[in-house]
Amino acid sequence: MRFFLRRAAFYLFTLWAAITINFFLPRFMKGDPITAYLARNQGKVSPEAIESLKILFGLEQDRPLWDQYIQYWGLLLRGDLGRSLSKGLAPVGEVILDALPWTIGLVGIATLISFFVGTSVGTYIGWKRGSRAEFVVPVATFLSTVPYFWLGLIMIAVFSTTLGWFPASHAYDKTLHPQLSWEFVSNVIYHGTLPALTIVITSLGGWILGMRNMMITVLDEDYVTVAQAKGLTPRRVVVNYAARNAVLPQLSSFALSLGFIVGGTLIMEMIFSYPGLGLRLFEATLAKDYPLMQGIFLVITLSVLVANVIADIAYAALDPRTRQEAQ
Description:
Blueprint: H1 2-27, H2 33-40, H3 47-56, H4 65-77, E1 83-84, E2 90-91, H5 92-127, H6 136-144, H7 148-162, H8 182-218, H9 222-229, H10 234-246, H11 248-261, H12 266-271, H13 277-286, H14 290-318, H15 320-326
Antiparallel strand pairs: 1-2
Helix pairs in contact: 1-14, 5-8, 5-11, 5-14, 6-8, 7-8, 8-10, 9-10, 11-14, 13-14, 14-15
Keywords: Membrane, Transmembrane, Transmembrane helix, Transport
Protein name: ABC transporter permease
Subcellular location: Cell membrane; Membrane
């Protein structure tokens, strides 16, 4: 209980700090959403409408920043993330909810596939160290050094432009309407294949290399030697003794990866014109859309913190030494 209380206090402080930075950082940027909006709509907005927008966004010249910060917390506690100026004054919550499923569906599934495949392959290579399977490590490591945008462009050039196997952009055909049907779901999978492969290929090397190195370290431990001396099957030694301990550092990295799923892969979503949170964040940054930027950053922060809490619980459940050190 003491371990979980200390972690809870730490995460509450981290949440407060992240929300505070989330509020002040956009306001320290050059420009503001009203100026950006007027630049896009020159001569189309009356002075009265401009003043109303300033009041709505809390950007009155005589209003101190500290007062805006207090009001921001009040709105946040009521679940009001404000309205997005770049999306026609639509509620920020609705804009985020429209984009969130696309990011979770694409980046989430790709990350899960990459983690399980990379961890499994790394476990096998670590167990069979010195075998021909080692050639996978340099190949996967090389592919992990390729930037998302570069590999994405290669994917589009080869599999979309040259071969014509997959579409180059968007999440589904514009002739379809989102609905729970096999026609629509299959079309989404078809459009998401190239961006998903881009994420899997570029992230697979890290999981393989990390698990392989940890397996080599764990295999030299005494408890693994004792398990082998008892005559246990190789499968049981690998799964119950070696892999169970070797995977612990992977869990922390996996938790962070799950957290950043919500943020999406900004460059990847831009390249494939995928309607996820990453693309929405890019658009909000260009438009100086404070409420939308803050809302997306808040969702990313919460997802990372929740993922770390889950990782702490899983780590403590798998490794009793963590709980003992916290007491």
